[in-house]
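#help-structures
NK: newbie question, is this the right format to request a structure? protein is Putative transposase
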Amino acid sequence: MYHLVFPAKYRRAVFDERVDEVLKEVCLEIEQRYQLKFLEIGTDKDHVHFLVQSVPTYSVTKIVKMVKSLTAPEIFKRCPHVKKQLWVVSFGQMDILPAQ
């Protein structure tokens, strides 16, 4: 069992109710595909806590990479306002996003 804490980029307050809902949906999808069980998921405005249980063959590094690489793109896709909030900090107050 592991307690993981993931801060948002630049500690921006991006975890609203919609993002929280999407995050929990994605975590349920991860549970179905991998040998992980999310016992608790808690969000604050600028970070998220996970209490994760997994098989011993998964290292902590593998779990962190898996959770981050699967949740972030889905949040950006389902909640495009999050990506905009994060990139405004990087590029000043520009209204455009960087090329992908």
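mod (FA): yep, format's fine, and the tokens are attached above. The chain has one domain: 2-90.
NK: thank you!
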